[in-house]
């Protein structure tokens, strides 16, 4: 069985790639309940991250994924979706 899970490290890398925002993965993890905009990530940047993940895993993420407010909420939704389809 393949276990697919997006980590805070990967999310930080995706924030850099898709939105040009550099965030320390440890800071992201420690502030997982902080809103994305506190890291400088807006809805368009989050949409870019959703697109990157959809391309990477070859499947669509729920429409709610681009409306997530915090890194923890986003990772919970993305990871539960990926696990359900694994």
From TrEMBL:
Is Phosphoprotein a UniProt keyword of this protein? yes
One Pfam family per UniProt? PP-binding
Domain Carrier positions: 5-86
At the top level, the lineage of the source is: Bacteria
Q: Which UniProt keywords apply?
A: Phosphopantetheine, Phosphoprotein
Asked if the Swiss-Prot or TrEMBL record annotates the protein with the keyword Phosphoprotein, the reply is: yes
Protein name listed in UniProt:
Acyl carrier protein
Q: What is the lineage of its organism?
A: Bacteria, Bacillati, Actinomycetota, Actinomycetes, Kitasatosporales
């Amino acid at each position: 069985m393949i276990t697919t899970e997006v980590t805070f490290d990967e999310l930080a890398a995706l924030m850099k790639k898709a939105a040009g925002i550099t965030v320390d993965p440890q800071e992201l993890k420690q502030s997982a309940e902080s809103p994305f905009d506190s890291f400088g990530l807006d809805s368009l940047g989050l949409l870019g991250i959703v697109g990157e993940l959809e391309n990477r895993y070859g499947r669509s993420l729920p429409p709610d994924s681009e409306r997530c407010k915090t890194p923890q909420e986003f990772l919970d939704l993305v990871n539960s979706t990926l696990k359900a389809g694994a």
